[in-house]
Amino acid sequence: MRLTTAMLADAAQVQGGKLFVLGGGFDTISARTIPVVHRSLTLAMVAEVEPDERHRDLEVAIRLIDEDGNPLDVEAKGKLRVGAPPNLPPGSPSIVPIVSPFYNIRFPEAKGYAFVVNFEDDELSRVRFRVVQVT
Q1: Integer Cα distance of 89 and 83 in angstroms
Q2: % of the chain beyond a pLDDT of 70
Q3: Counting C-beta atoms within 10 Å of the first and last residue's C-beta, which end of the chain has fewer, N or C?
């Protein structure tokens, strides 16, 4: 499995096999005070699943770290099971949209952060962003 797309969004959902994103593709969160609690943040992704990965549990884990590599005690774990649509040509990968919402994340400092996405033991993506203080 590999990710063809991974971005931050205000919100996202999957409907009918399609990814719907609201306020996506940003890399900066502005806050008047630090620390700040961000109410809602979604990681929107599109995965390409190979034929030999179908019909089994694919373990995906997401964790939030700061720019120094320290974990923030924010993570999501889940299992993805993908089948093959009947009209998919033999040997073709399946395209699968995935969303992972996070609520009430506390950012203790104005600095860089990243969501790290792992599939089994491999890092698939690192979605970097920063929190800045504005006046």
Answers
A1: 13
A2: 100
A3: C
User: In which domain, by residue range, is 42 found?
Assistant: 2-133
113 within 8 A of 64, measured Cβ to Cβ: yes
pLDDT classification of 73: cutoffs 50, 70, 90: very high
Hey, what amino acid is at 10? Answer: D
Q: 3-class SS at 53?
A: helix
Identify whether the C-beta of residue 76 lies closer than 8 Å to the C-beta of residue 61: yes
Alpha-carbon torsion angle 6, 94, 96, 65, nearest 10: -40
Q: What is the CATH number of the domain that holds 106?
A: 2.60.40.2550
Tens digits of residue pLDDT in 29-50: 999 999 999 999 999 999 999 9
Nearest to 58 by CA among 80, 84, 77: 80
Whole-angstrom CA distances from 56 to 6, 19, 44, 61, 86 are 23, 22, 22, 16, 17
pTM, whole model, 2 decimals?
A: 0.93
pLDDT digits (tens, 9 = 90+) for 80-100: 999 877 888 888 999 999 999
Tell me which residue of 76, 135, 77, 132 sits closest to 107, measured CA to CA: 132
